[in-house]
Design brief:
The structure is a single chain. The chain is 16% helix and 33% strand. It has 6 helices and 28 strands. The strands form 8 sheets. A 6-stranded mixed beta sheet has the order 7-4-6-5-9-8, with no helix packed on it. Strands 16-13-17-21-20-18 form a 6-stranded mixed beta sheet, with helices on both faces. A 5-stranded mixed beta barrel has the order 22-25-24-26-28. The structure holds adenosine monophosphate and magnesium ion.
Length: 407
């Protein structure tokens, strides 16, 4: 049976980043940039005031004090968005607002708090200004012609703001992975319908779709099939333009576990069974030319295998560099037992406290107990050989939803 690391290596080896496409900026949040963005304008595009105040010639304010202010004639008002019409000459000043262009001749801005109204048409400067005070020179952020963002850059709110500041409305990014989800099981009923004896609600569909969205993918299709090989095959054949297929259930060794059979018949199985708990009976392979994860049926197993195997795959498809989940060391707050054998991932809440991370594992450990996930932001790792951990011991924790290049 493969270790988690071996399974991750198999998955990552068999995938490569998707092609790029142009998208409106707001649709690229969390995507990877696929072009080099060169600034077409300087930022800021012109020298402008960083404060509301008075554009002056610094030399005119030398030795100004409250008792001996320097009186200047106000020649005009320059609000943001206006163009100064007159130059500032010795003995004069222009009222200026934050973001407004610096008038010709001025070399400093005195903030309003350092001025006092003078007799009509004048203002008194009560604190000296130095050349350059409160002026944001053109290009101090970035000069026109310089590369602002390189291919491979992850786009978050700040980068999207920068692209907007440069006047862009669209940008070329690696396409979001399109995912098709097929849940299996004759005992499953869609939420909203009536439960019959022996049936339960299909919770994997929504949990998995949410996981895909959270990981930056798109859900192009959600289907449910009973435990029927032909129905599964039909669902996999009609999954449109998906880049990745996900199934849940039917991948174990029970009488109705037919996912592997379909995988073997329509493609090839690259891995089956990983030394992890929950999530052992996970499969990965290729069906009809598309990668497919056969995830287990139990709802918590689905979430754990998603985190450890599917999310890294989605990151790789999306062009991210550091795709594997991020781990940190944390101090355990309560004790936890473990049967040596498989590596166990327990739903847990990790916080930063005083001078380091602390982790509280959920008391619920069953692979079907979804309440274990309430508030969980991490997975506590119990190593294969461990018999358990005591409060105060250090443990490895996987931070949910984080690849390495996000930190
Ligand atoms: P299986 O691997 O198909 O035998 O499923 C293992 C367990 O997970 C069974 O108890 C199933 O009822 C449960 N299960 C499978 N699929 C789902 C689903 N979509 N939603 C909730 N529970 C499921
Ligand atoms: Mg089943």
């Amino acid at each position: 049976m493969l270790t988690v690391e071996q399974a991750q290596a198999v998955v990552m080896r068999s995938l490569s980043p998707l092609p790029a496409e142009r998208r409106p900026l707001l649709e690229t949040l969390g995507c990877v940039l696929a072009e080099s963005v060169v600034a077409r304008v300087s930022l800021p595009p012109f020298d402008n005031s960083a404060m509301d105040g008075l554009a002056v010639i610094a030399a005119d304010t030398t030795a100004a004090t409250t008792e001996a202010p320097r009186r200047l004639e106000v020649i005009e008002d320059v609000p943001a968005g206006a163009r100064p019409e007159r130059g500032v000459r010795p003995g004069t000043a222009a009222r200026i607002m934050t973001g407004a262009p610096i008038p010709a001749g001025a070399d400093a801005v005195v903030i309003i708090e350092n001025t006092r109204p003078g007799p009509s048409g004048t203002v008194d400067v009560i604190t000296p200004a130095k050349v350059g005070d409160n002026i944001r020179p053109a290009g101090e952020d970035i000069a026109a012609g310089v590369e602002a963002l390189s291919p491979g850059q992850l786009l978050e709110a700040g980068e999207l703001g920068l692209l907007s500041a440069l006047g862009r409305t669209e940008v070329s990014v690696i396409r979001r992975p399109r995912v098709s989800i097929v849940t299996t099981g004759a005992e499953l009923v869609q939420p909203g319908e009536k439960l019959r004896p022996g049936t339960i609600y299909n919770s994997n569909q929504v949990a998995l779709a949410a996981s895909v969205l959270r990981a930056g993918g798109e859900v192009v299709q959600c289907r449910h099939v009973f435990d029927d090989e032909a129905a599964l095959e039909e669902a996999l054949r009609s999954c449109g333009d998906a880049d990745l297929l996900l199934t849940t259930g039917g991948v174990s060794v029970g009488d109705y576990d037919f996912v592997k059979g379909v995988l073997a018949r329509l493609g090839d199985i690259k891995l089956w069974r990983v030394r992890m708990k929950p999530g052992k009976p996970v499969a990965f392979g290729e069906v009809l030319g598309r990668p497919l994860f056969g995830l287990p049926g139990n709802p918590v197993s689905v979430l754990v295998t998603f985190e450890m195997l599917v999310a890294p795959a989605l990151r790789l498809l999306a062009g991210r560099k550091d795709c594997l989940p991020v781990t940190v060391a944390a101090t355990l707050l309560s004790d936890i037992r473990h049967k040596p054998g498989r590596r166990e991932y327990c739903q847990a809440i990790t916080r930063y406290l005083d001078d380091g991370y602390v982790v509280e594992p959920s008391k619920k450990r069953g692979s079907a107990m979804l309440t274990a996930t309430i508030g969980a932001n991490s997975l506590l790792v119990l190593p294969e050989e461990s018999k358990g951990l005591c409060p105060g011991e250090r443990a490895t924790v996987v931070l949910l939803g984080r690849g390495g290049d996000e930190l």
